[in-house]
Amino acid sequence: MNTIGFKTLLSKETRRFLKVPGQTVAQPVITTALYFLVFGFALGGRVKELDGISYVRFIVPGLVMLSLIQNSFLNTASSMFIAKMQGTIVDLLVAPLSPGELLTAFTLAAVIRGFLVGSIVWMVAAIFTGFSIAHPLWTLLFALMVSIEFALFGLVVAIWSDKFEQLNLIPTFVITPLTFLGGVFYSAHMLPEPWATITKANPVLYMVEGLRYGILGQAHSSPWVGLILTGVLTAVSGVAVWVMLARGYKLRG
Amino acid sequence: MPPLAVETDALVKKYPKVQALGGVSLSIEPGEIFALLGPNGAGKTTWISIVCGLTRATSGHARVLGHDVVADPMAARRVVGLVPQEINFDPFFTPREVLRFQMGYFGVQPSNDRIEELLAALALSDKADVSSRELSGGMRRRLLIAKALVHRPRVAFLDEPTAGVDIALRKDLWNYVRKLRAEGTTIVLTTHYLEEAEELADRVAVIDHGRLIAVDKPEVLLRQHGKKRIRFTFDAPVVAALPARLLALGATLENGGTSLSCPLEGDASEVLAAAAALPARVVDLRTEQPSLEQVFLALTARVERRA
Ligand SMILES: Nc1ncnc2c1ncn2[C@@H]1O[C@H](COP(=O)(O)OP(=O)(O)O)[C@@H](O)[C@H]1O
Ligand SMILES: [Mg+2]
User: Do residues B290 and B194 lie in contact, with contact meaning Cβ atoms separated by under 8 Å?
Assistant: First the structure.
């Protein structure tokens, strides 16, 4: 075990996003505040209640989920991809850092960023809707699992991408659609058939539902379903990243 | 017997279109300064990359201080430092921060004294706290060297460490390399400045087209492949054809006939007598020592002809 090496990489990856707080922290907060204003208040005036909860409260878990997903994905994806592009990845590849240590340090830094932004977003929202959390443990568990999953996913995409366009492909065509269709701003139950059924195949739905259960105390699907699904996805992504790093896929020629 | 610093057995690397290494076996002793020479595309960087674990060999084995780079990569990497040929820098961080990280990655507790020492050794002290973006090309190269050495590797690989570094700093760098060797570090380097290799290296390997064509002490290579020459300067051009015995020795007229250059092997008296007999007065006489550059060109040209 290279404990010093692991800690150093973790601290570097964390400092990387803390060095540009405007980009990594303030920007997502502003975006979320805008969503909150536009969807929560403007629309909320008409929608009033969803599943028996005021609309502004209803969208809080979705907004937190949105920032967790975006920030944890972006942190690993951009850090790994930039390191590949500017050649600094060599500094890590020659060092005695095992695939597991690389994976954990990158992922953990991304989880920290996800949690940092996610909690700021939640606090901004809580000012308007109240600071209560129905099931703190479920909330933390879902936040953690989702951050880990998307951090790992970010690594997969960044290692695989040779060009910037490829890196953007996944967020644009996969993550953003799945997130928005995952019931961030609405209840999947509102959809007419066949969309209600099709939506059930979207894994992000269960993550949003899980966090909604954690924060608001009610959701349409059992949190256990979300937990198992996210757990499986995380495990698969973890293995994929580990194999990529261990084999040096696209990293060691 | 202590393990060799670096050992490669029949290292082969095939890329889809080219074979970069065609079976290179090399042994480098601990504490050596070893220079790897060869024209562009010879396979030097590929060899170093395999030994440092950045590239996988198609076949063959590589060991660093006895640790196989594939079977026991962590142990091998712990003792290695690499100056990659391609400059890289992270604009997010300052040289001081970068050195701290690099030390840590290698499992060494970051030390301010050590970082100051390297910044000073590579003339970067006054740039320690600026963004790496603000460094010149030569400074970036020097930062690369500092990064490779900060964790005190026992075997350091320097792939063209002086490209783009000016002469005064290059001299400082080589003095630093000698100091490292005195402390027991093994140094493997590639350079385009052959006079540097000649002066600095304990042993030299010449590779071309992925094959090893010579490995020896520079003085041995010079003795075996280099030719001493004798050069006469005349007071007036020699316009007549050279006599047969001078031609047989390989003599040629240069500078419009005002000088004569002839390889020197063993007996000089015959050349001297023949030159004295020419219809011009000898005003200067000089012998020229063979250079590694000459040897290098001769060795690589021979491969070229065979290919
Ligand atoms: N990643 C790569 N893909 C394909 N060919 C490569 C790659 N890296 C090096 N080569 C080829 O391998 C040969 C050796 O290159 P290299 O080791 O860089 O030579 P040197 O360092 O001696 O100049 C060259 O023909 C080069 O084009
Ligand atoms: Mg090279």
Answer: no
Whole-structure pTM value = 0.90
Tell the residue nearest (CA) to atom 24 of ligand 1.
Answer: B41
Give the best residue of A15, A19, A91, A245 to mutate against chain B (max B CB count within 10 A). Answer: A91
Listed in sequence order, the residues at least 6 apart from B111 whose beta carbon sits closer than 8 Å to its beta carbon are B103
> What DSSP line would sit under B129-191, residue for residue?
TS-GGGS-HHHHHHHHHHHHHTT--SEEEEESTTTT--HHHHHHHHHHHHHHHHTT-EEEEE-
In this structure, which amino acid lies at residue A98?
A: S
The Å distance, Cα B303 to ligand 1 centre, comes to 18
Q: Which residues of A touch B90 (CB under 8 A)?
A: 83, 86, 88
Cis before A194? omega within 30:
yes
Which atom of ligand 1 sits closest to the CA of residue B42?
22
All CATH 3.30.70 domain ranges in chain B, comma separated: 227-289
Nearest to B106 among A5, A7, A83 (CB): A5
Query: Which of the four CATH numbers 3.30.70, 3.40.50, 1.10.10, 2.40.128 does domain B227-289 have?
Result: 3.30.70
The answer to whether residue A253 sits within a structural domain is no
Distance CA A30, CA B38 (A): 57
Considering just the CA atoms, what is the radius of gyration of chain B in Å?
Answer: 24
| Ligand 1 binding pocket includes B40 (Cβ within 6 Å) | yes
Q: Where in chain B is the domain with CATH 3.40.50.300?
A: 6-223
Q: How far is CA B84 from CA A45, A87, A143, in A?
A: 61, 10, 40
Q: What is the residue range of A179's domain?
A: 3-247
Give this complex's ipTM.
0.91
Interface touch B84/A8, C-beta < 8 Å: no
SS3 B208: strand
Question: Which of B8, B17, B18 has most ligand 1 atoms within 8 Å of its beta carbon, as the pocket-test mutant?
Answer: B18
Return the pLDDT at A150.
97
* Planar angle of CA B118, B120, B121, nearest 5 degrees: 65
Fold of B6-223: Rossmann fold (3.40.50)
CA distance B89 to chain A (A): 6
H or E element in which residue A241 lies: helix A223-247
Taking contacts as CB-CB distances below 8 angstroms, the residues of chain A near B69 are none
pLDDT 10s digits, A184-227: 888 877 888 888 888 889 999 999 999 999 999 988 889 999 99
Report whether residue B38 contacts ligand 1, using a CB cutoff of 6 Å. Answer: yes
Confidence band of B41 (pLDDT split at 50, 70, 90): very high
Q: How far is the CA of A226 from the centre of ligand 1 (A)?
A: 49
Cα A171 to Cα A74: distance, rounded to the nearest angstrom: 9
Distance B19 CA to ligand 1 centre (A): 9
Amino acid B303: pLDDT: 60
The predicted structure's pLDDT at residue B151? 97
**Interface residues of chain B, partner chain A, Cβ below 8 Å:** 49, 52-56, 73-75, 77-78, 80-82, 84, 86-93, 100-110, 147
